[in-house]
Design goal:
heterodimer; A: 166 residues; alpha+beta; Alpha-Beta Plaits; 4-stranded antiparallel beta sheet; 41% strand; B: alpha/beta; Rossmann fold; 6-stranded parallel beta sheet; 19 helices; 16 strands; globular; binds thiamine diphosphate; binds magnesium ion
Chain lengths: 166, 512
């Protein structure tokens, strides 16, 4: 078994102040690893969906799930298996592009990656890309030769494939 | 229920709340808060009570309008008292306290994320029964969950049906009568020798309502290493947290035990060989209580205390050697008669806990057994018991040391004694008398028993300052060791004493 597997945990929580703190506090206090966390409204009014990416072995994952479930404001928790999960992240990259050549190369790469240019200034190009975190890494790698001024990433959010819901 | 003012009042509640959280005590703590429009401004006596208490409560609430209060109170009591009990905090801003509104008693609670599982899964019950049937050397480990769920009757019945000896955690003291032949006494760092060795040897450990704390298990890799483990707990997160479990059952101890008793068909056969072995082992290491010397040995004090009280007496302890002496040597036969701070080990717990117990159970005698150090942390409550006439009896086991820490310094830190001698002050008798509380000093064998009887008879608050031998150490398992690695002499009453008759042998208890 993979000792330090990356897990995608999806949690349905009450959409009210303090819930994020309860969840984040739980991770810190119990020494659980937290790579990224995203929160937003869900299909149910009053409920938000949190997607947490965490690393750990099966035992740790079991504790994370059980401890999350103990929180009164958490309604449901599910470890999303990679095979049945769509995982997407949004990333904005501000690239240093003073030369015409740099500019056109960055635009080319962005197109290949199905990204979009969302802002232009005399010295920079800002591109938007969505996708699997690995794909985002790849684009970042490519454009880093020009000099990256800033990166903003949302962290992945995820949902199960097919008709199944959590 | 307890109440504190905002800021320092709220922070003073923290230790008590954390104590309740660790030992799963249902409490509602209400803290004052600055007016809602001042929150976040670092106002006078403002503190982030919600933030501070998040990791030490089952849940907490901060109403921003008065009409939220009834629903929150209703939910708070429900959450605190159900499932695995625990503390709930209500952080109440001043303007909300003063707001007037049309009172409407709370409608249904909206707690979609809170549904404790009470009934054990039938498939797991069957697997558990099979495991027990097949075992040759079963042992029950009973925790505080038995007492919280009111399952002591079921536990007794269950132990008799499967003919297994019963060990308890500290919080489990009182879950099974310690005068029962099947009782092994407390397990763990300061556990009874028989308990530690029999759990070590068992091939099937049935843990109920306990959380395998490090003080109970010792080094995990050496804990009950030949045993299949069956764990029954209402909190799913406790199952598999510290110890790998073969059969997990999530559910309330009372319900699960009741159901489990009925699953056996046929009844497990009597493991006579194992029971004889346990009985012989137990008789070979009955802790010695009688010591006819001055300064008094704590064991002798406990012996006299036991002789002076009844099974209805509620005894609380503080934390330290006093607590562990009581846990080790003092037999408890009924639930909720032994109250102690287990998980957090909060010094200063014993005396106020006794006050609470006396107010809840005015017809029971209540005795707080405290260390001199711990009692000093809360001695101002002598004013409380005097003013409100709450007749609790305080026994200060006076060794002029922070005895437990001193013991560690002696055993593990080359006798580098640091900050553990308490010196000559105060005079506890004079201290009590200054509050108008009657007090006596006890120095010699024989005095304790009479003094306790006098104190009970007086019907008044009473303090006994018992001068004990500061050099008496508890038997203990050093941290990082397996539970059979007890250091120090384990003083035994007598080898194979005639007067100790194992009353009902396992055979008479059925098992056919
Ligand atoms: C509030 C608090 N502070 C410190 C400790 C650490 N501690 C555990 S036992 C102990 C000594 C207790 O001394 P005393 O109350 O005299 O009891 P004794 O061990 O002598 O019986 C200390 C300091 C604690 N458990 N609680
Ligand atoms: Mg002391």
């Amino acid at each position: 078994m993979d000792e330090n597997k990356t897990h995608v945990i999806s949690a349905l929580v009450l959409h009210k102040p303090g819930v994020l703190q309860r969840v984040a506090g739980l991770f810190t206090r119990r020494g659980f690893n937290i790579e990224t966390i995203t929160v937003g409204p869900s299909e149910n009014e009053g409920l938000a969906r949190m997607t947490i990416i965490s690393k750990g072995d099966e035992k740790v994952l079991e504790q994370i799930t059980k401890q999350l479930n103990k929180l009164i404001d958490v309604i449901k928790v599910r470890d999303l298996e990679p095979g049945i999960t769509v995982k997407r992240e949004l990333c904005l990259i501000k690239v240093h592009t003073v030369t015409e050549k740099a500019r056109s190369e960055v635009i080319q790469y962005t197109n290949i990656f199905r990204g979009r240019v969302v802002d232009v200034s005399p010295e920079t190009l800002t591109v938007e890309i969505t996708g699997d975190p690995e794909k985002i890494e790849a684009l970042i790698d490519l454009v880093s030769v020009f000099g990256i001024k800033e990166i903003a990433r949302t962290g992945p959010t995820a949902i199960t494939r097919g008709t199944k819901t959590i | 229920m307890c109440i504190g003012t905002s800021g320092p009042g709220a922070t003073n509640l923290i230790t008590g709340i954390a104590t309740a959280y660790m030992d799963s005590s249902p409490i509602l703590a209400i803290a004052g808060q600055v007016s809602s429009h001042l929150i976040g401004n670092d106002a006078f006596q403002e503190v982030d009570t919600i933030g501070i208490t998040m990791p030490i409560t089952k849940h907490n609430y901060q109403p921003m309008k008065a009409d939220e209060i009834p629903g929150m109170i209703k939910s708070a009591f429900y959450i605190a008292g159900t499932g695995r009990p625990g503390p709930v905090v209500l952080d109440l801003p001043k303007d909300v306290q003063e707001e007037e509104f049309e009172f409407e008693s709370a409608k249904d609670m909206e707690l979609p994320g809170y549904k404790p599982t009470l009934k054990g899964h039938p498939k797991q019950l069957k697997r558990a029964a099979k495991l027990i049937q097949e075992s040759k050397k079963p042992v029950i480990l009973a925790g505080g969950g038995i007492i919280l769920s009111g399952a002591t009757e079921e536990l007794l019945q269950f132990a008799n049906v499967i003919n297994a000896p019963v060990s308890t955690s500290l919080m489990g003291k009182g879950s099974f009568p310690e005068d029962n032949p099947l009782s092994l006494g407390m397990l763990g760092m300061h556990g009874r020798k028989v308990s530690n060795f029999i759990v070590d040897e068992c091939d099937c450990l049935i843990a109920i309502g306990c959380r395998f704390s490090d003080r109970t298990t010792g080094l995990l890799s050496k804990f009950a290493k030949n045993a299949k483990i069956l764990h029954i707990d209402v909190d799913p997160a406790e199952i598999g947290k510290n110890v790998d479990v073969d059969v997990p059952i999530v559910g309330d101890a009372k319900t699960v035990l009741g159901d489990l008793i009925n699953v056996f068909d046929p009844k497990p056969e009597l493991k006579q060989e194992w029971l004889n072995y346990v009985k012989d082992f137990k008789n070979s290491c009955i802790p010695r209580l009688s010591f006819n010397e001055v300064p008094l040995k704590p064991q002798q004090v406990i012996k006299e205390l036991s002789e002076a009280i009844t099974d209805d007496t509620i005894v609380t302890t503080d934390v330290g050697q006093n607590q562990m002496w009581m846990a080790h040597y003092f037999d408890v036969n009924n639930p909720r008669k032994f109250i102690s701070s287990g998980g957090l080990g909060t010094m200063g717990f014993g005396f106020p806990a006794a006050i609470g117990a006396k107010i809840a159970k005015p017809n029971n005698d209540v005795i707080a057994v405290c260390g001199d150090g711990g009692f000093l942390m809360v001695c101002q409550d002598l004013a409380t018991i005097k003013e409100y006439d709450i007749p609790v009896i305080i026994v200060v086991l006076d060794n002029r040391h922070l005895g437990m820490v001193a013991q560690w310094q002696k055993l593990f830190y080359d006798e580098r004694m640091s900050q553990t001698h308490l010196g000559e002050s105060p005079d506890f008798v004079k201290l009590a008398e200054s509050f108008g509380v009657k007090a006596e000093r006890i120095k010699k064998p024989g005095e304790m028993k009479e003094a306790i009887k006098r104190a009970i008879k007086s019907g008044e608050p009473y303090l006994l300052d018992v001068i004990i031998d500061p050099n008496e150490n508890l038997p203990m398992v050093p941290p990082g060791c397996g539970i059979t690695e007890i250091v120090g002499e384990y003083k035994v009453e007598r080898e194979y004493p005639d007067e100790i008759v194992v009353k009902a042998s396992a055979k008479e208890n059925g098992g056919d």
